[in-house]
Protein: Dehydrogenase/reductase SDR family member 12-like
Amino acid sequence: MSMYRNTIWFLNGIHHYTRSGYEAASKDFQPQDLDVSVVGRSFMITGANSGIGRAAAMAIAKKGGTVHMVCRNKDKADEARLDIVDKSGNTEVYVHIVDMSETSEVWEFAEAFKKQYPSLNVLINNAGCMVNKREENSQGLEKNFATNTLGVYVLTQTLIPLLQKSRDPRVITVSSGGMLVQKLRDDDLQSEKGDFDGVMVYAQNKRQQVVLTQQWAKENTVIHFSVMHPGWTDTAAVSTSMPQFHQMMGERLRSVEQGADTVVWLALSRAAARTRSGQFFQDRQPVPAHLPLAWTHSSDKEIQSFLTHLETLARAVRSKPDPELKSQLSPSTPQFV
Structure:
């Protein structure tokens, strides 16, 4: 079944995820969808100093939005901000230095942001990582999971009350079509079992993001939630994490602007707000979150188990100092396995 999933996914990707796939899909785009001004609306974008995040920040700034760039590297973030301000003419662009792999740092930032700012209209969960060797953060959490899943969960959950108070609130999570080859695993969130494969761990995290988005949509009807696949995009992260794939695809990879297009459409357009909350998008269209005959659907019990484990971890991060938390997250502690 794994071979089937991978084969179908790759053949589908060659047709739809490449630059030519975007060019074909864009023929059906409605240009007026992005003929909007968002002056007075605020947008938070994680991982906004490079790649898809930076392209989205630039596009939103050009439409007049207030942009909160959440970045790990201050020098790169400041350089990106200056470029965005210069090219957009919009000075309402702010930098917040946060390492999304450090979960307690994410929670502290989100709590502080709620106190400092009266509203947040759109949250874009873009930051991600693909670490190909198993590493842990300072709290003993596997880094891919900490960044791609738990960081997204903690940031979003903490900011939901602020979003609910805002006009036309939206949450957009940048996932990956790679999640189509993965069925949700609720019994090994820390990737402690078996051999460690960074690509598959990343894909599993992206499946987790889709499940989270569907759950959030059910629980928070005031907010519009969506998750999307940017296609195979030529970013520094792809060239670093998957050098062979990057070299093989070459000019067939999408530009960062093409990769960010659906993020921007979901964040800005009225058309996006009219779609059903909780869906998985590709090139401005909702698409299935499962390949046909791939057996990647999860039972309600499996989803609830995943959500329970996630919330248990989040609560531990919020209540324990780092050394104490790390000892609780050791492999000998059953509830966190």
Observations:
- The chain has a mean pLDDT of 92.
- The chain is about 50% helix and 10% strand.
- The radius of gyration is 19 Å.
